[in-house]
Amino acid sequence: MQQDTVLEMFPFVAKISDEARQVFDRNVVYTEHDKKSRFIEKGEDVAGICLVTQGALRVFNMHPSGKETTLYTVTSGQSCLLAVNCVFSGVAYPAWVNVDQENTKIISIPAAAFRTLYQMDETIRDFTFEVLSLRVFDLMTRLEEVSLYGLDRRLASYLVRAADGEGVISATHHDIAAELGTAREVVSRILLELKKKALVETSRGSIRVLSMKKLAGYGEG
Predict the structure, then answer these.
(1) Which residue in 149, 150, 158, 195 has the most C-beta neighbors within 10 A?
(2) How far is CA 215 from the centre of its chain?
């Protein structure tokens, strides 16, 4: 069952050579984690790369005031950019990582084993470059939003990205504030404005987008 999940979430595993697959199977570790538990502390040596098969991890920085700012989220079928970088560079992890959803399931590959796999197999190398390129794009998009847009537009953009297929975002005002690096009261005020404009409706622990198109264009011009 675990191997079936790996192949479903990370199809590249089915394409690696038999020799590489033996190394992969011999070293892979399966773990499950509770929401809000710490996965990596800032300054730690990274034990290896992680592949999320269920749930999510939140990578964030913390200001001296204690306010958190999310750098990115690693969801099902994804791996962590910073962890991959640390595995090859040998530097300590530069941020914190918390488990962001209940029953988050992770596949870990020890650093030495992954470096061996990287040398052995072209498919592993392609996967590594894909992780790096996609995450760099995500980070550049976030930096652009922070530098160019007001918080109201950043919040609207976050809601559009985070909404599920039915337009629902399962997050508290505190969660969103941590995501955007601001105060909960500021998020509550902007959400109230969006609610007055009939763009969203709110309930305890969740938000529903009423007009995805209008919300995506909110704050432009």
Answers:
(1) 158
(2) 22
Spatial contact of 40 and 93, defined as CB atoms under 8 Å apart: yes
Angle at 124 between CA 121 and CA 125, to 5 degrees: 90
Distance from C-alpha of 190 to C-alpha of 202, rounded to nearest angstrom: 12
Q: What is the DSSP letter of 41?
A: -
Q: Are 101 and 56 in contact (CB under 8 A)?
A: yes
Q: What is the pLDDT of residue 96?
A: 93
Q: Tell me the residue length of the chain.
A: 221
pTM: 0.72
**pLDDT lower than 50: segments of the chain:** none
- 45-82 tens-digit pLDDT: 999 999 999 999 999 988 777 778 888 889 999 999 89
To the question of domain 149-216 being in CATH 1.10.10.10, the answer is: yes
CATH topology of domain 2-147: Jelly Rolls (2.60.120)
Which residue ranges make up each domain of the chain? 2-147, 149-216
